[in-house]
Every structure is written in structure tokens, then in C-alpha cells.
Amino acid sequence: MHSAQELVSQLDALASLPTVYQRIRDELDSPDGSVTEVGRLVAADPALTARLLRVVNSALYGYGGQVDTVARAVQILGLQQVHDLVLAMSLSSVFAGISAEHMDMNRFWRGSMMCALASRAIARGCGLPSAERLFVVGLLADLGHLAMYQTVPDLAFEAQLAADRGEPLAEAERRLIGCDYAEVGAALADHWKLPPCFAEVLGAQLDPRLGGDSAFDAAIVHVATQLVRADRCGESSDTAAARVAAPVWQQLSMSPTSLGRIREEAELNLAAYVALFFPKLGVQ
């Protein structure tokens, strides 16, 4: 049996965040961090520069193609959002070595992006000023599975087969591996030194009550993941809503009937966002 920390320690030799992201994170954490220095760090990576400008100038961000330099992008977006965008754009390269035998990466990133979009839509509906942050947290929600498929791929696949037969996936993972994907995702976020709220939300996404100060955000991601499951399994939004406990709806001041609208919004933007953040994947 394996602990989440053990899997993450094994993963460390296989996957790490790009150096440019780590430097941006350090700059953000520094009391002397500056917009100018973050702009310089991004500009030193031509590929990252091109992708960031493409994202900022897309219709999805509403700046009408007027942002022509990294410095301007950082000024407009702010340090925190640039940090989050660089993190989001780094993910596909970090896990480029996943075996196609065990995981359909196109399907995985499509689901992750849908979770990101649904999380942001729910956060906006709840009036949260941190809605863009929830986009990135939602994108990371299934991160634990990527770690599992790189470190214990056969066991992870066996757990998925058990889930296909009706056993809850997290329970199958705990039985076969010793930990579930939420635990592994939280351990990885902590190991990568992501903002503490990331690990809190990822670890509590199966049961938002365990999220402490991040319980509200964990409830948002919990609801969003039900939509992803419904999308993958061809289920209705009503079926997805029925899997969410009544206290979660009460916590978010949401009605289960609102899930259909959130799903429509996420599906409407899905292809465009996948093309922006994962241009090489060709996700449908």
C-alpha cells in the first residue's frame, strides 16, 4: 500500500514544474516582488510569451488584441493572475510522459478544462472575487490521477475498472493503492509549493466539510466535478445534481436546477479554452 506522500516523492523524479514558473512563484512570494521582474521572467521564455499573449488577446479575456507586450499583460492582469495562467499553461508539459495505454490524455484535459470552466462559472454566480483563481484550482482537480498513472499505473487502471463496475472510484483507490486521487493531488500541490488554498481545496473536493477555511471553494469544485463525470458518462445534469448532498447546495446558496445552465456555459467555451491552453492536444 502507498501513501500520497510516497507517490509524490516517486513522481518528483518524473515531473516538475518549469523553472520559469518556479521563479515567478518566488517573485510573487517575495515582499520585494515586482511587476517588472515577473514581466522579465516571462519575456525570457519566447514560447511562454507567445502563449500568454495569445490567451490575453483572445476574445475570452476581452482585451480586443490590444496587449502587445508581456509588460502590458502583467500590468493588466496583475501578478496573481499571471502566476495562475503560467501554472495552467505549464501543466500539459509536466505530464507529457503519461502512457497512452493507461490514460487518454485528450479526454483527461478536456475534463479538466470543463471542471475549470464550471468552477469559475459557479464562483461567479456566488459573487466571489476570486473566480479566476477557481478556474485554475478546477483545472488541477484531477491532478492526483495523473500522479497515480505515472507512479502506480497498473493499480490506478485497476481502480478505474472497479469504478466502471460500480465501486466509487476513491474507495477503489484507497482499497487498492492506499490513498485516493484527492489526497495525492493535495500532496502534490503542497510539494510543488502552490498557494496553500490549492492543497486545501484539492484534498477536500470529495467532502467539502474537510476543507477548513477553503470549504466553500472545495464545495464549488465538488459540484464542478459532478458535471465532468456526467459529461464523460453521458448523464443528464439532473443526474449530476442528484449526487451533490443538500448541505453543499445550501452552503453555496445554489439550486440543483442551476447546474444545467452552468454546464451549458462550460460546454459553450470548452473548445476555445482547450485550444488556448493545450494547443497541441487536439482535444475535441
TrEMBL record:
InterPro entries: HDOD (IPR013976), RNase_Y/CdgJ (IPR052340). Residues 14-208 form the HDOD domain. This is HDOD domain-containing protein. It comes from Thauera sedimentorum. The lineage of its organism: Bacteria, Pseudomonadati, Pseudomonadota, Betaproteobacteria, Rhodocyclales.
